[in-house]
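Q: For a teaching session next week I want to show students how multiple molecules come together into a single three-dimensional assembly. I've collected the sequence lines for a complex. Could you give me the predicted structure tokens for the whole thing so I can convert them for display?
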Amino acid sequence: NAGSVSFLQHIVHPISVARLVMEHTPHVMLSGKGALEFALANGFEKKNLLTEKSRKAWKEWRVESKYKYEINSENHDTIGMLAVDDKGGISGACTTSGLAFKMHGRVGDSPIIGAGLYVDNEVGGAVATGLGELVMRTVGSFLVVELMRSGHSPQEACRLAIERIADKIPASQKGAQVGYLAVNKSGETGAYAIRKGFNYALTHKEDDTFLDADHLVQD
Ligand code: GLY
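A: Of course. Below is the structure for the complete assembly, covering every listed component.
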């Protein structure tokens, strides 16, 4: 089962609206004005989420308005989560502020089922972070799950999906980051990124660890 929202403005927790789409509508995805109307009809509050710092940064960017495809901690913030319960049931979630300084209407990978997130309860789940354009072009999370279905471990599947992207990065997007996390039905996990700086938390029962993912480019 799946639910998502895209181009949803003024709502603090769009991930909760996405869950309602999954649980209470016959659809998988709501977007823009319709997603906002659905959120407001279900008790969410409309808020101004633009901070003074962001407004100032946007005004400075508007002087040249260059669409630079650089992903770093200053201009994007995607969080992905995968979980396996005690009966082996797998679930996943993904939420993002999206890319900063983009064209109006741009949608990234996170709300696209199969790109930013994909779970098949018979196989495993995968979630992506980084430059959504690169993930969408390879339907990345679906690819990771399909690689696990054909026998690869979560770690191998993440690495192969990153290599698929890295082989084809357009010159204008060199330097971009993408990272995948994956888990399979047995609870084995994997994580791999194009470059260093992608880290993740792994929790097993009471144990929490914070790990750096392996990466392809060794700078
Ligand atoms: N991964 C988030 C985005 O590209 O919008």
